């Protein structure tokens, strides 16, 4: 009888552990509204960067304009003491000079902190969105400053990442959406690329690596490192790299969080519910090489506008929670 009772207890414990493990395999995001950079009549804010903290202030950069897309935008920034109440500080970077690769829009910013400076990565296009049919020719550039408040100076090597000249490559049409981490003394620029003739639903994710913040950035020979994903959000997790995959890509990778010891060969570690659109996260270990990075707890994303009411994209907050809702 004692043996039977003990076996029942063991089975119960094993079942409990199994249920708990299954629960922890899902990460759920929940959204919340922000003040200062949220909904505003006739104003578009979208494509927020990852968030950094300088002193007591959180900083975020984003695309701002008057149309729904980012193809007629400039880059602005805001600060916050708590990540919920934001104060818009002004434009960080305007459009490029006429007849340059970035003359018609600069958008989708992200930030790298390295060598005592702030490196603002951004996407630029030369084509005018008013000329239809529109097909963006986006490339990635960098502006640098000694302060997160600017002023920002474009580096001479721009654009630092271009679409491939080989039309068979996954990024032969465009590159966009930089996301940076520092690993083993090198700078990893994860980005999305699209092949000529392919749709936005066929976007894939690659990585380019440099020994210096300003580059040169060299695309990895095993690109694309993830065969899908329309938004790029990565972070150091332990000694490896984790990536959030949204709704674009083959079914077996969508709505997941994936992990790679080497930052290249990713496998699933979590399922994901309610993936944030174009999310940027607070990643305190992104540039430290501490080996102690963890999944972000919160971030910012594009909110879903009510287009029937004429709303334009805006910025919302999101939380990440392991397990049940």
From TrEMBL:
Keywords attached to this entry: Glycosidase, Hydrolase, Signal
Keyword Ribosomal protein: no
Pfam families: Glyco_hydro_43
Signal peptide stretch: 1-21
Domain of life: Bacteria
SUPFAM superfamilies: Arabinanase/levansucrase/invertase
Recorded metabolic or biological pathway in which this protein acts: Glycan metabolism; L-arabinan degradation
Family recorded in the similarity comment: Belongs to the glycosyl hydrolase 43 family.
Record protein name field: Family 43 glycosylhydrolase
